[in-house]
Design goal:
Blueprint lengths: L1 H12 L7 E7 L2 E2 L22 H4 L15 E4 L3 E7 L22 E7 L13 E7 L8 H7 L3 E5 L7 E11 L10 E12 L45
Parallel strand pairs: 3-9
Antiparallel strand pairs: 1-2, 1-4, 4-7, 5-6, 5-8, 8-9
Bound molecules: 2-acetamido-2-deoxy-beta-D-glucopyranose and copper (II) ion (CU).
Length: 243
Amino acid sequence: MKTSIALFAAALASTASAHTIFQELYVNGVSAGHTTGIRVPTYDGPISDVTSNDIICNGGINPYRTPLPTDIITVPAGATVTTEWHHTLAGADATDSDDPISAGHLGPVMVYLAKVDSALTTTVTGLKWFKIYEDGLDSSGVWAVTRLVNNKGKVNIPIPSCIPSGNYLLRAELIALHGASSYPGAQFYMECAQINVTGGGSASPATVSFPGAYAGSDPGITINIYWPVVTSYTIPGPRPFTC
Ligand SMILES: *[C@@H]1O[C@H](CO)[C@@H](O)[C@H](O)[C@H]1NC(C)=O
Ligand SMILES: [Cu+2]
């Protein structure tokens, strides 16, 4: 119990502005370039309202850096992409003890895709999203965010081989649960990358909407992760699509 309270206090103390931004995508280990093809905001703050359009691709209360990217990253179906997160847009160059994110920002990591006519579309409402990746709390009590921190901000994501070719937005998301014991409190971090899937198949995954996929009452969104220390965790949203 003493340890839990100490951890809780330490987590609170380190949460002031220790946020994060998904800012680099690798395809089969090759970087597309720092911030290339990713709609990065100018501020790394969280979204807390799951009913807001800002939950889609950010860029609302944290305005996008402009001009918006015009690159579309080619991703062969079946490839492994790596999403890389950092505390600020300085990226891996920052000498920052809260990079890639404060170690106290514990929670899950997820990735969704939405098929779009053009990955350059600026209309992100009304899209149909399917989850392709999720990582929450493992059986040893280690959170996805801790794995991300240990891997210097990188998370490897297999792209399903059977999804149709074409343009998509790739929405990478991290939820920090240190203040999530009441709603709003969970901190949602997400950015959207512009990709073109090649060599795909003909699957039609079930989809969800943003906003809509999450509710403030979800057990993975309003949760006290410190006391009692959680041993199992229900990741928000649907289970990931597999071919
Ligand atoms: C996507 O890839 C296909 C296949 O290589 C190509 O024909 C198409 O022009 C690409 N589209 C975009 C927007 O990059
Ligand atoms: Cu933060």
